[in-house]
Amino acid sequence: MSDLPPMTSVKRWLVTTNHKDVGILYITTALFFLLLGGAMALLFRVQLWEPGGLGILEPVQFNQAVSTHGLLMVFWFLSPIASGFANYLVPLQIGAKDLAFPRLNALSYWFYLFSGILFVLSFFQGQTYAGGWTLYAPLNVPMYTPAMDATAGNNAAILALTLFVMSITIGSVNFLTTIHRSRAEGLGLWNMPMFTWSWLLTAWMMLFAFAALLAALLLLSIDRLFLTEYFMTDQGSSLLWAHLFWFFGHPEVYIVFFPALGIMFETFQTFTGRRLVGRKWVIIAMVLVAVQSFLVWMHHMFLTTINLEIKTLYMATTIGISLPFDLMVFSLIYTMVKGRVRFTTPFLFSLGALVLFILGGITGVFLGAVVLDYEFRGTYWVVAHFHYVMVSGVTALVAGLYYWWPKITGKMYSEALGKLNFAVYFIGFNMLYFPMFLAWETPRRVFHYGESAQIYHQIATVGAFVLGLSFLIMFFTFAKSWISGPKAPDNPWEYSRTAEWAIPSPPPLENWDGRPSYASGRLEFVDDSPAATDGGVAHGQGNTAEASVEHEAEHADHASIWPFGIGVGTFVFFLGLSGLTPFVANFAEGTAEPPEGLVGFETQPDIMYPVLIALGMAIMGITLFQFGREKFDAPVMNIAERWPFGGIGNTKFGIWVFLASDVIVFGAAIGAYIFMRLHMGWMDWEFDPITMAGLVNTYILLTSSFTVIIALVMAERKNKSGLLGAMSATVLLALAFMGVKAFEYTQKMGDGHYWWYSIEYSIYYVTTGLHALHVILGVLVALFMIYRIISIDAYLEDHRPVEFFGLYWHFVDIVWVLLFPLFYLM
Amino acid sequence: MANLRTYTLIYILLVALATGKFVFFEFNFAYATAIGGTIVLAVTKILLIAGYYQHLIEEPRAISYMMATAVFMVFLLVIAAGYSIQ
């Protein structure tokens, strides 16, 4: 499907894969979740009007409002709205026609939207999640908190977050491939616009950090759905969760803030009319922060039982990460000093963000000191600090909305209304969050507090409504502009220099008439048509055939319904999973070794959920199959800057990036095993493996790796029957592997060793099961490829898909290389 | 791309290395020795598979650095978390 309906058609928004459309979808959806998260905040701020609560919320409802506010704002608003900007602007800023994988980009969005819908539905399935946005163990499982009953709603919230993380992972792979491989000729990394720089580093952080969260959420979901014990043991579970969560959680702060920082850099440059002071050093500082962000996570765990040496080390790394930020702040201030400031609405919001971020940063340094953290942890000091940081990010994101609104819509907005918006926003923000510093002794997530703090809480509550009002003004300003605003020129800002301002507002579907190039040192549009090149040779680092760019533009596709279909199927499947627990609990109770002391699993089975699981799988099967069959030509850049990833195709690079993420997912799961075993005492681990089964499966999987590599050789030789035979052998070996696994599991269960039997068995079943799931997914792909070989003689002319499949399959083999000794020998 | 002969030799080597891990634990080696030996064999196997079956040695070095970064992240998480409870 390549025809893209007009923007006024609903169908357009269901089928589009164009990066600008997807960007608009992201931004509007994120703003909806901002309103929802904001409504939650207003609810509990009203409850906090007086000590002990005003009574508008029951205690568990208060917990739900607080938890869902945090989850919605951090996950469904902050990251996605930045993703919306990135979708719209990064390809424009780097001179690309679209993202590297447009259909995957659409799939990212649909996973995001449906994860949000699943989260909203969780309110209506018993109750939604109420254990705080950090999902600390053991609050995240029902064992010690019966109020956290494993209702479908509680499960759905966790599963929604899992689906959201899947969306982020796909998006990260796409952006990393795009930015590293689709930059216009002459656009080296140093010269990339600052917003794109901030997003590149964000994508790298997301790739690694969200993978750890994905692993944690998978383990948590399995605990809740299948009664395993990762987060239910009385020893080690809470530390395990904290390590996994904060390994993600601290980089997440910068994942959320970096795009905002990028917007600040862009707007400061534009509205001071000056290049960012110390630009190169600012980029180095951002890279340093991105690296350091993975070295500070244990400062969130100073009140746990981790040892003092590691606390001291992490105190030092935490103080260290503030230094690059100092450089960035001084750069922004000095850029203002050196330039001529024009106080437009986007600049005011950016300047406000800088002021608020400085306050948030300084108050955060207190929390990096172990001794002070002992006092401040779990109080409103933390709440105030991180809102000053995170919502200063929101402030810059609002600046971005105003800055790029004329480009996206082609309409100008009212500066007077915009400035009014800023004034109300800034007053509301500080009325809301500053009193929290003064009321710092108030415990978090509790509506009981000392009477002396009441005045501060009341000011904060009034501030919350003022801040809410500012967003209504913002929506009114944009609506008025949309309906009756004057037409925006290509570049309404005098000193903006990035490429998006060099084309019409809004930009055309294909972005550029010619090929953008910076080869001469400034942006030019090159006509690559044969008549225009006069027989000359185009220069660049392209490594594929020198096809005509115009030829590609004519055939580039922008529409596919299948990403939407896959999103629907996955949503239905996850919704079905949310109600699986009662069935598993009933099964467990009926076995010879039922779980002991099972608490919080009293929800009654509902047949609707298994039906939804089956339906979801069916929809996924059909849509994935059609997705695989569909002929879709993404825009390709034959001439592009690709350092340091030249000499490798887009798809192969994308697969490697995905595998890097999967290394973290498996690494975290295997790490959970090592951590729990260390915590228990390495030699006290009571698990009785069937070693021969592990050894046989090792031989089987190694042999399957060999058959996959033979398949590649056969494809290269254009030997159809050889290719077919090798792929079929791979599938048969995989089935043999699964057969041995089934035998092994049956033996274990025959001995009464189910996955709920002990933490040892939970980890054994889940880790090897996660690997088996990868094998099954590989088998499905292999079967599809066999179908394609038989039906259309696929891969004989272009053998690369066989190589891509091999990359995945060998990775699965590598994981088993580690699992075999860990679970069968040691 | 390597040829079929190289792939076959590597396969034989991989099977031998897998058997080696089993031998370490089935015969009377000290537990620490068995673990150490197994780690060496496992790392060798992983490098062989990644290097020759996934053709990492033929790809741009940056791909290897990226994968090494991912592995480093795992080591960082596991070692730091493990040390934190000692």
From TrEMBL, chain A:
Short name of any one Pfam family annotated for the protein: COX3
GO CC term, one of those recorded: membrane
Highest taxon of the lineage: Archaea
UniProt-annotated location(s): Membrane
Entry protein name: Cytochrome C oxidase subunit I
Entry's transmembrane regions: 21-46, 66-90, 111-136, 156-176, 197-220, 240-261, 281-300, 312-335, 347-372, 384-405, 417-435, 455-478, 561-587, 607-627, 653-676, 696-715, 722-743, 763-787, 807-825
Keyword field contains Lipid biosynthesis: no
GO terms, biological process: aerobic respiration; electron transport coupled proton transport; respiratory electron transport chain
Domain Heme-copper oxidase subunit III family profile: from-to ranges: 550-826
Cytochrome oxidase subunit I profile domain residues: 7-519
Chief location: membrane
Key words of the record: Electron transport, Heme, Iron, Membrane, Metal-binding, Respiratory chain, Transmembrane, Transmembrane helix, Transport
Molecular functions (GO terms): cytochrome-c oxidase activity; heme binding
Topology of the protein relative to the lipid bilayer: Multi-pass membrane protein
SUPFAM superfamilies the record matches: Cytochrome c oxidase subunit I-like, Cytochrome c oxidase subunit III-like
InterPro entries named among the record's database cross-references: Cyt_c_oxase-like_su1_dom (IPR023616), Cyt_c_oxase-like_su1_sf (IPR036927), Cyt_C_Oxase_1 (IPR000883), Cyt_c_Oxase_su1_BS (IPR023615), Cyt_c_oxidase-like_su3 (IPR000298), Cyt_c_oxidase_su3-like_sf (IPR035973), Cyt_c_oxidase_su3_a-hlx (IPR013833)
Family affiliation: Belongs to the heme-copper respiratory oxidase family.
TrEMBL record, chain B:
Domain of life: Archaea
Chief place where the protein resides: membrane
UniProt-listed InterPro entries: Cyt_c_oxidase_su4_prok
Species annotation: Natrialba taiwanensis DSM 12281
Transmembrane residue ranges: 7-25, 31-53, 65-85
Key words, A-Z: Cell membrane, Membrane, Transmembrane, Transmembrane helix
Membrane-related topology note: Multi-pass membrane protein
A GO CC term attached to the entry: plasma membrane
Protein name, entry field: Cytochrome C oxidase subunit IV
Compartment list: Cell membrane
Alphabetical list of Pfam families matching this protein: COX4_pro
